[in-house]
Specification:
The complex is a heterodimer of chains A (about 375) and B (about 325). Chain A is mainly alpha-helical and about 375 residues long. Chain A contains 14 helices and 2 strands. Chain B has helices at about 1-35, 40-60, 65-95, 100-120, 125-130, 135-140, 155-175, 175-185, 185-190, 195-225, 235-245, 250-275, 280-285, 290-305. Classes of the chains: A mainly alpha (about 375), B mainly alpha (about 325). At the A-B interface, β1, α6, α11 and α13 of A face α3, α4, α10, α11 and α13 of B.
Chain lengths: ~375, ~325
């Protein structure tokens, strides 16, 4: 252990906090970490599948950008991931660890599908879409705000609460699926009503919608009073209270927003892509979104980049599994390893190790 | 009536055995949380534990290893796999002071993926028997083949209970436990009285991860014994994390808690046949929500009641940096 300290002598290495690094330096550290991670992964692939490292990198790029079909799929996946990442961001900025995006999105999608099933063909498509949207957003917001109310009133641990809510949501989806499939197969086919119109390309509307949402959220968090209040509550609840912010109100309001955005994501998944629902509709993206948001330092604009990066890894590694005929679990290994490197490199941005002789030269603590 | 009792006993024993999967994960997570670290990587670590154990069994297949040794080596391999995951987690969160939630979730992504990668290779129904399922009988009847009700209650059930009781003893009755708890409550104070905070965090988390890993092996080799068992470990892992809250960070209570979770988990399947009534299939799906719903309620009740001994460790989730003021 590097930071272990023996009481007898001064430790060899000691860690001090850094002042803010210039942007290019912190970016350089992150890029280096990603490069190191990819090298590590390609080494791993050499050992496992006997592909050479260049082939590995080449296939990674081919998987996301190799053809226009793959490019569209890449953009679509990145947009969905980005949308859920946007949803978790306001809560994270106030240090509310909402790991329930999976459930909030799923329950939003479930509400949209419920509207499609019970009102489809009874109202015109335009009205149906609006009702689906309202249902998704409302239910998502309610689902998100339940843990927030308990957090605000009784400091109930939100991480564990939101985690549990994921499985309640999954269970509800499983229940309704059985209810809606007369054969008891639990597989709901594609519904013919409530499709969002396709403009240009099937995925284009979705992508534009998410990008608009990104800019709106950026403006909300950066330039509005409410966005500022979120940041203050995140920095220090006591400061927030001192300057007269109603902390409980901010917590509940922000989680309503987070949940509502998850609902929007669920609506988009159902209305523009799947037109159906399964217990795996969100497929772990609620968890991945947390890492996307964190990697972007909770900045919506940077999240465009980080969500694209994770999608690139996922899709690239998936391409490797098809090209080299290995198991489909390979992408999650790659994503996991790259995340370890990225998580680890943050240390060198926030802190710096100092060796023993430097301490006497007035090293600043 | 006799019929009812017989089937109830079977339900109870099956559920109790399943609960041991939770118990391993829960005891491991309690140790970690007592050191102030919320390890959300537990589901991934349990998966890895199962994979490492099976991998060891595969390597030993065909070799002339005595059954008892076979079981012990598999358990050690599983423990080692979990401990290595624990080292990665500790390096990132203790030494590099990374965010615990993000690191934990990355661990789960990595662990579940790696496990699937390892297991799918040797888990086609044909190969599984040769590569690791051949050892099933040693896990289930290490002392010779015996009666049916005890079919799941192999020696790893006893091990789980012993580990939980030992953890409870160490935490509450020894100096080491006192130090560990103080590290989790207030690391700065512990540091000031000369406790090696980093050391305690590393050891507690790695041992905890190793114990949790055994849960994965237990589920595959003792409870399920099927070739696609590894696919459900992640879901059970999250329940283990839930169980920690449910039992208020007490390993000895978690023995009862894990049995209860086992009963709840199987309720959807067993209760209708037990009572001789036919529920609609969809109702059983609702019953599957029970463990999560009950945990949520316990979480709310403990936070509302505000009893000090029922609260999570005060330093949970907060990285410790000595020079922070």
């Amino acid at each position: 252990m590097k930071t272990a300290n023996k009481p007898v002598s001064e430790p060899l290495v000691h860690v001090v906090k850094r002042d803010a690094l210039p942007l290019w330096k912190s970016l350089l550290i992150r890029v280096l970490a990603v490069v190191a991670a990819l090298l590590f992964c390609s080494l791993l692939s050499v050992l496992m599948i006997h592909a050479n490292p260049f082939e590995f990198i080449d296939t990674m790029f081919d998987g996301s950008f190799g053809s226009s079909r793959r490019l569209w799929k890449f953009a679509k996946d990145a947009a969905v991931l980005l949308c859920i990442s946007l949803a978790v961001t306001p809560a994270f900025r106030m240090r509310f660890w909402n790991i329930g995006a999976e459930g909030q999105t799923l329950i939003g999608a479930l509400s949209a599908v419920a509207v499609m099933i019970y009102l489809g063909n009874k109202v015109p498509n335009g009205v149906l879409l609006i009702l689906m949207f309202i249902a998704s957003v409302t239910v998502g917001a309610i689902w998100g705000c339940i843990p927030a109310i308990f957090k605000a009133k009784w400091q109930t641990n939100e991480t564990l609460f939101t985690l549990m809510m994921n499985y309640v949501a999954t269970g509800l989806v499983a229940y309704f699926l059985l209810l809606w499939t007369p054969s008891g197969s639990s597989v709901l086919g594609e519904l013919s009503v409530g499709h969002l119109p396709a403009i240009g390309h099937d995925y284009l509307l979705l992508i534009i919608a998410v990008l608009v949402l990104t800019v709106l959220l950026y403006i909300y968090l950066q330039y509005t009073k409410q966005g500022y209040e979120i940041s203050v509550v995140g920095e220090s609840e006591n400061t927030a209270r001192y300057i007269g912010i109603n902390v409980n109100k901010v917590i509940i309001r922000t989680m309503l927003l987070s949940g509502a955005l998850c609902g929007v994501a669920g609506f988009l998944i159902v209305g523009a892509l799947d037109h159906s629902i399964a217990t795996t509709t969100v497929g772990g993206m609620g968890f991945t979104a947390i890492m996307v948001s964190w990697m972007a330092k909770f900045n919506p604009l940077i999240m465009i980049g980080t969500s694209a990066f994770i999608t690139f890894l996922d899709q690239g590694a998936a391409q490797i599994t098809t090209n080299f005929d290995i198991d489909s679990a390979f992408p999650s290994m790659v994503v996991g390893i790259v995340l370890f490197f990225v998580i680890g490199c943050e240390f060198f941005i926030g802190y710096k190790p100092k060796f023993r002789q430097n301490i006497h030269k007035g090293g600043k603590a | 009536m006799e019929q009812f009792f017989a089937s109830f006993l079977d339900y109870f024993l099956t559920a109790f055995a399943l609960g041991m999967t939770f118990l391993y994960g829960c005891t491991g997570e309690i140790l970690t949380e007592k050191a102030g670290h919320l390890n959300l990587g537990i589901p991934g670590i349990m998966c890895i534990g199962g994979a490492c154990g099976c991998l060891a069994l595969k390597l030993m297949s065909g070799a002339a290893v005595p059954p008892v040794l076979l079981v012990i080596i598999a358990i050690l391999a599983s423990f080692a796999g979990g401990a290595i995951m624990g080292v990665i987690y500790c390096f990132l969160t203790v030494t590099l002071k990374a965010n615990q939630n993000v690191t934990g979730l990355a661990m789960t992504t990595f662990g579940v993926g790696t496990t699937k990668f390892i297991m799918s290779d040797m888990s086609s129904a044909k190969e599984a028997t040769q590569s690791y399922l051949y050892a099933l009988k040693y896990f289930r009847y290490p002392f010779g083949e015996s009666g049916s009700a005890l079919v799941y209650n192999g020696f790893m059930v006893v091990l789980a209970i012993v580990i939980a009781l030992a953890a409870a003893y160490v935490l509450n009755r020894t100096r080491v436990g006192l130090h560990l708890r103080s590290v989790g409550e207030n690391p700065a104070t512990a540091d000031a009285v000369g406790i090696n905070v980093t050391g305690y965090k590393y050891v507690a988390t790695c041992v905890g991860s190793g114990i949790a890993a055994l849960g994965g092996l237990f589920y595959i080799m003792c409870w399920s014994g099927s070739c696609d068992a590894y696919k459900s470990i992640e879901k059970l892992g999250w329940l283990s994390v839930a169980l920690v809250i449910f039992t208020l960070w007490r390993p000895n209570i978690s023995i009862i808690g894990s049995a209860l979770f086992g009963l709840l988990y199987l309720a959807g399947n067993r209760i209708p046949t037990l009572l001789g009534i036919q529920f609609d299939m969809s109702v059983t799906k609702l019953l599957e929500i029970l463990p999560y719903a009950v945990t949520t309620i316990v979480l709310i009740v403990t936070s509302v009641s505000k009893k000090r001994e029922n609260q999570p460790p005060a330093g949970l989730g907060i990285p410790y940096f000595r020079e922070e003021r």
